[in-house]
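User: I'm writing a short report section on ligand binding and want a predicted complex to refer to. Could you take this sequence and zinc ion and write out the structure as tokens? A short remark afterwards would be nice.
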Amino acid sequence: MGLKYLWVSGVIIVFLQLITGSFGWGQHGHYVVCKIAEGYLSENATAAVKELLPASAEGDLANVCSWADLWAIRTHYYWSRALHYVDTPDFRCNYDYSRDCHDSAGRKNRCVTGAINNYTLQLTSACHNPAFKSRYNLTEALMFLSHFVGDVHQPLHCGFLGDLGGNRIHLHWYHRKANLHHVWDTEIIDTALKKFYSSDLNIMIESLQKNLTENWSNYIDSWEECDANRTVCPNPYASESVSLACKYAYKNATPGSVLGDDYFLSRLPVVEKTTGSSRDSLSRRPKPCIRFLRVDL
Ligand SMILES: [Zn+2]
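Assistant: Sure. The structure tokens for the complex follow:
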């Protein structure tokens, strides 16, 4: 059992890294990220994940990857609100864990990268010591982790403090009022679904999976990079995200502007590729503990 939990954490890590993309995301984005990640789980890892899933997931991790964003959850788990993002200093375009990872009250480690570290630790601890299984709610740990890995790859979940990651930048997405954060969470993906994938999420997922094995294969090594002694590496993801936010999300998206085809068509590859990189993370070399599990299970 312990081994299985460890495997879960390994999977998540892979999964986390796999999500190097910008699917920070609304429901579709989180579903796509988790669905692609599931395809890289071993048989044993799949079984371990299913063992932790709630009945509402119906055996599919992707079905609960947006759980942490549900209104009822946000209300009941109000304390978790700050764990979905990390704010960075305006126009600095960089991220520093010790400087940036805190909530609005200044409490350290309460941000998306801190949460990824925390829930990974919970899952791995339960693997190494069965006593921890009763200490933590591992089902929630799995659902939070799979969600936050998605969030950290959405560039504006690591955006500027002054505009709250684009939430305060009010503009138009084509003819509709929107804010920049919502454009990156939802509008780009949903517009692509309608224009290029016949509003069929499965077709979009298949297209991304194909890119991962073909067009983006040369990026896999860099997406897999993580310090040798660490199980998870959320800091590089946050750094990449704020860099992408400056280069693409904020650029030409000033308050009152109208974002249309030019913005959509030039930013969509960023969204898609970030998703691809997260999948590559999945395929990266396993950490020692995970390798051990692979051998043992
Ligand atoms: Zn979220």
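A remark for your report: The radius of gyration is 18 Å. The first helix runs from residue 2 to 18.
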